[in-house]
Amino acid sequence: MTSTSSKPHDLQSLDTLTGGAFTAPTSGERAQRIRDWLAANPTPEQMQDVFKELSGRDKGAARLLREKLDELKRAKSQEAIAVEWAHKAEALLAQPKLNIADALAWQRDAAKAGAPLSREPLAGFKARLAERVKGIEDLQHRAQVHREAAVLLAQRFEVLSTKSWRDAQGVEEALRADVAHWQQQAAEIVADPNWSSLDARFAPQLESSKAQLLVVSDAFHGALTLAVAAAADAAAPLPPVPVWADELRVARGGTPEAAPAPAKPPAPKVDPEKRAAAQDAVQAALAKLEQETAEGHGKASAGAAAALRAVLKDQGKLVEPPLEARVHAALVAAGELEGWQRWSADKVREDLVAKAEGLLKRPEGQALGGRKMQETLRALRDQWKQADQGGVPNHALWKRFDEACNEAHKVVEAWLEKVRADAAEHRALRTALIEEVKAWAAEHAQASDLKAHNRALHQFADRWRDAGHVGEKVFAELQAQWNEAFGAARAPFESAQKASVERRQAMIAEAAELGAAPMLRIDAVKALQQRWQHEAQSVPLERRHEQKLWDAFRAPIDEAFNRKTAEREKASAAMSEHDRNVLNASKALEAANSTGDAQKIRAAVAQLEAALRGEAPPPAPAAAPASAPSDGPAVGATEVVAPGQAAAEFGESAGQAPAPEDADALPTAAPADAPAAPDLVAPADGADPSARADAEAAPAPVAPPKPAPKPVIAVRGDDRPGNKKAEAMPAGRGGKFGDRRDARGGPGGRTGDRPARPGERGAPAGGGRFGDRPPRFEDRGPRLGDAAFRAQREALERAEFALRKLASQAHGEALTQVLGAWEKRDAAQLPSVQELGRAVTPAVRSSWSQAIGAAPSAQAADAAEALLRLEMAAEVPTPAEQLDARRALQLKLLTRRGDPTPEQTWGQDAGKVLAASHDAASARRLQNALKALLRK
Questions:
Q1: Closest by CA position to 243, among listed 166, 167, 164
Q2: Which of 196, 374, 483, 555 could serve as a FRET partner for 216 with CA atoms 20 to 30 Å apart?
Q3: Residue 9's pLDDT is what?
């Protein structure tokens, strides 16, 4: 008969209890089943049995059980500790006088013992103690503020004793109320439950402040009562306040008494050296105390305060009042720091722990990098060391802080590993670059293209600069190798640069020789400059050095050219008679331009052109009698511009001749073969260049004959307005005012054009090549100096601009008169044909005059269509609201190809508009259209 063992039954029951942990095939499954079983909160006895059986089979799964059992043990011990520290907290709270240091020591010692301060009931006791400590601190602050209030009230009494007693009487009741309120607040402070927990020094301080305030208040009110009685009764005694007594004495008719100056006992003489030594000793001890207090070192500040008291005890009599005040303030601050240091140290530590734990809990995208994390951890540890210097160490907080810092330091370790890998890669890259430079230097030792050589060197230097970061020692080692390799690669280029500098120095010396020669050789200078440019393009130098050499090379040549220019200007400074005449005529033209008179401007232009041809200026004309007839005005005469002249000016500004319809209204021009007047003054239509050309060609001044009327020439074709054939431009001086007369070629058939060569069209018969060419003096006159040429060119340009401006002004005034006549329905205000210009015929003006003189008769639709036709003829924009009507009219005109176009009938269309009633919008549109049409 065999006996059965109980162990297999125990294993089977434990396996069933743990959900198959003992029969699991792998360690991972076994650990997972143990975790699931532990989540069901088994009893400690069951866990102990399973741990005993499993610890010899699977240590990994058994570790979970051991950790759970250890946690239960810690929980039991923490419960016992929590009960113990809860009793201590209750005892502290039950004390009528609570010491702040004891409350803070309870929290520190409980954390050091491992009590669960974050769980109840210790969390509630911790909050109650913190609240009690805060109440004590607030009460201390109130007591200090109340003491200061008592001092301020006493100062008010003192200030009122220096003023009139009537002022004091006016605020007496307010002072009484303030003193009573102060006493009430003092009683509330004393009745506070935490009053007994305050430091022992606060109670006597508050009592002394109260007693002093009451003494000052009673004395003030008593003196004020005497002052009031003395004011009412002249026999009553005066108050003990000197200011009030003097005031009452003056009111009674007496004089104020001068207060005798109190005799001060003579101060004993002190050796200046002893006083200075005492001052230095106190200041040294004071500086040490202020430094320790500012840094928050409680222990060090206590020692420094003791040392300062000892020095002050020996040297206190020799210390000056300002320094003594600083000493007392520093001692007070050190005393307060000593009491608060233990509590503030834990506050600082808790802040540091929160910062360390928050390093890895930052928001997404704001995680600190490796270097920043390293610097932050170093700063946090330094701050923890400073906190430990001023208070008792807190091991529980230190453990949390150290664990948080170690966890955050993993980021720094990963970053350092990456930095090491990058440094190794960068070192390999730099080493390979050094080898590449060495190979390139051996291959290009005899390079001919120095620019490409220099460019490659710059590229190597850039690659070395961008090769990445390495350690300081590694960089120092690699930098020496790089300098050696790069110097060898740069040696051919530097030798070429040195040779190029020597050649350039030789060219600088050669340039100095050329510049110092009495006769400057232009060909040698050009050759030397070409050699310099070739050298500069072949061998590049550093920019500043090359610019310095170029300045040295250019200086002697520039000096030679400047010397030559100065000699040329000196030679041309002597102005010829011809230049002087041209300058005088230019000044006369400038003066005529400033007058704004077209007649004077044209006369001055004629005189200037005569001076340009080399003709002698005419003598000053004698004063002629008033009745002497003349074909043209004298030089400088002023006359009113006729309407025909205004039309001629406007037509000239537009670049076209006047219309044939206005030929009768315009003054006739002199024939081409008529001699010029002796005073060289152009007639009213002197803009005709052919007349001036004929006048200039006359050999001697003779009296001009009577001009013949312009012949009427029949022209075939359409004679409607807009279809007139343009007349040929009169031959004469073309181009721009101020162009040189000796310029070759150019439009307009100028008198300064070159003569035709033999065999060409228009060449003179019998023209030869050498001596039979006709003289050119008659064409352009002598050559001008630079000053005279510029003066005549600028004067002629300004004259042209002034004539155009005058013509534009005349045109604008005529258009304004047309609109004014339409608005007032007054045909008398309508300008004449000459004022309106060549674009308006007499028939058109007559129709306008009839439309304006009569009452408005045109329909609004006809006037609107006429305005649209005017805008189409003038090619000006139409208002937005009329665009559809304009497009409709354009389509309508396309279907009537036989009808006259708007360009042909714009005069009749303007008459239709003028026949309608006036309004501002139509006037503005008519003005824009006529402004463009009258210029055509």
A1: 164
A2: 196
A3: 44
**Among candidates 848, 284, 893, 794, which has minimal Cα distance to 587?**
794
d(C-alpha 642, C-alpha 597), whole Å:
12
Residue of 930, 920, 795, 819 whose CA lies nearest to 866: 930
d(CA 786, CA 781): 15
**Distance (Å) of CA 53 to CA 31, 47, 48:** 14, 10, 9
Model confidence pLDDT, tens digit, residues 457-475: 888 898 888 888 888 888 8
SS3 category, 280:
helix
Computed from CA positions of residues 500, 502, 508, 510, in that sequence, does the dihedral angle turn out positive or negative?
negative
Note the pLDDT tens digit of each residue in 745-775: 444 444 444 444 444 444 444 444 444 444 4
The whole-angstrom separation of Cα 40 and Cα 36 is 7
Q: How confident is the model at residue 550 (pLDDT cuts 50, 70, 90)?
A: very high
**Exposure string for 117-146, b = 16+ CB within 10 A, e = fewer:** eeeeebeebbeebeebbeebeebbebbeeb
State which H helix or E strand residue 325 sits in. Answer: helix 321-357
Q: Residues 600, 623: contact at Cβ < 8 Å?
A: no
How many Cα neighbours within 13 Å face the side chain of 274?
8
**Chain position carrying tokens 């665009």:** 883
State the DSSP code for 581: H
Compute the average pLDDT of residues 837-856. Answer: 86
- Rounded CA separation 447/314 (Å): 88
Handedness of CA 777, 782, 783, 789 (dihedral sign): negative
Coil, helix or strand for 495?
A: helix
Asked whether the predicted pLDDT for residue 207 surpasses 70, the reply is yes
Mean pLDDT of 140-158: 84
Q: At residue 748, what is the residue type?
A: G
Question: Cβ distance 368 to 403 under 8 Å?
Answer: no
Look at residue 591 and tell me whether its pLDDT is greater than 80: yes
The amino acid sitting at 678 is P
Taking 60 as the threshold, does the pLDDT of residue 92 lie above it? yes
Torsion of CA 768, 772, 777, 783, to 10 degrees: 70
- Is 53 exposed, middle or buried (CB count within 10 Å of its CB: 0-12, 13-18, 19+)? middle
Question: Which pair of tokens denotes residue 842?
Answer: 């007499």
Please state which of the ranges 10-14, 33-37, 414-418, 439-443 shows the lowest mean pLDDT. Answer: 10-14
Using CA atoms, how far apart are residues 161 and 632, in angstroms rounded to an integer? 107
Give the pair of three-digit tokens for residue 749.
């058939």
For 617, the token pair is 């200026």
Residue 725 tokens, joined: 């054939």
Reported residue count of the chain is: 936
- Using alpha carbons, select from 136, 82, 137 the residue that is nearest to residue 111: 82
Please give the Cα distance from 240 to 252 (Å, whole number). 17
* pLDDT tens digits for range 152-206: 888 888 888 888 888 888 888 888 888 888 888 888 888 888 887 777 778 888 8
Among 484-498, 503-517, 649-663, the range of highest mean pLDDT: 503-517
pLDDT in tens, 716-743: 444 444 444 444 444 444 444 444 444 4
**DSSP result, 96-137:** SS--HHHHHHHHHHHHHHT--TTSTTHHHHHHHHHHHHHHHH
- Helix, coil or strand: residue 5: coil
Q: Are 707 and 666 in contact (CB under 8 A)?
A: no
**Tokens 């550093």 sit at which residue?**
542
Contact of 532 with 552, CB cutoff 8 Å: no
Examine residue 658 and say whether the peptide bond preceding it is cis (omega within 30 degrees of 0). no
What lies within 8 Å, CB to CB, of 50 at 6+ separation is 14, 17, 18, 21, 34, 37, 65
In angstroms, rounded to a whole number, what is the distance separating the alpha carbons of residues 244 and 516?
A: 103
Model confidence at 337, in pLDDT bands (50, 70, 90)? low
What gap in Å lies between CA 669 and CA 658, rounded to an integer?
12
Round to whole Å and give the CA distance between 466 and 430: 10
Q: For residues 412 and 372, what is the distance between their CA atoms, to the nearest angstrom?
A: 9
